[in-house]
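Notes, p. 3: input format for complexes.
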Amino acid sequence: MVQNQEPGRTAPEPSRPDRVSVHGGHSGQFCSHAVDPLDRVVAAYVEQGFRWVGITEHMPSARDSMLNPEERAEGLSALGTQERFGAYIEACRKLQTDRRDHIELFVAFEAEAYSDYEPFLESLLAKHQPDYIVGSVHHVGDVPFDVSRECYADAIAVAGDIETLYCDYFDLQYRLIRDFEPAVVGHFDLIRIFDPEYSQRLTPESVRIWDRVERNLHAVRDLGLILDFNVRALSKGQPEPYVTAPILQRACEMGIALVPGDDSHGVVSVGANVDRGGQMLAESGFSTQWQRPA
Ligand SMILES: [Zn+2]
Ligand SMILES: [Zn+2]
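Output follows (294 residues plus zinc ion):
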């Protein structure tokens, strides 16, 4: 009999997984729908004992027609968001150095896919040299479908029907993965956001959609990318994080790494549900030796 334990010693409690966020740190300083200065957001991660955090501000707008409603309300132009983004990278690099004894920060950003975004994203990568990017799709048919129910309805109308909206979403995501190999794929199934019947669509029985899910997961695995286990979903009224259970199970079978992302948009949302997300991943059979994005 192999006996690794000293007599009389009980097995140690399984320790809590390290607190990390692969997708975090939007701040009111650099994002029109977030709050608080970036240094206070980072201080909150330090206080909560995070081991490492990818600061992943949204990418700026390529052109004025792609500005979000809240950026328009602030009177920002696309050029204005690009200048603000340059200031973000600079401030984040400084915090990375200043805070290195307390936390490991990655200077990253959340890339967006819409029509003709590719040259713009390439120029941002060349100019700013981030530590990594999160590849996210927030637009289908150039409609920002996750902004509101109304926007979601508009996106369905542009696509023709909801099944086609899902298919178009996963096709855009596939091209983003293939062309840019983002170290992290953000909220893989965000397209379900305002669909009360999403569990009927994100299932192997829904063949047209699921074929695309499978294709994208294979690309993620073949490239060794990480899926963002986006727990912000839980504080935004979703019954489960992104990704949904059937995709989570498939990713686990395929050996894909999932890592919690808090997708924080200010101090109060720093770390929200990250421990719960880590626990869910452990219970689902994933390693909690979190894969690092860079
Ligand atoms: Zn945001
Ligand atoms: Zn996002």
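The chain has a mean pLDDT of 95.
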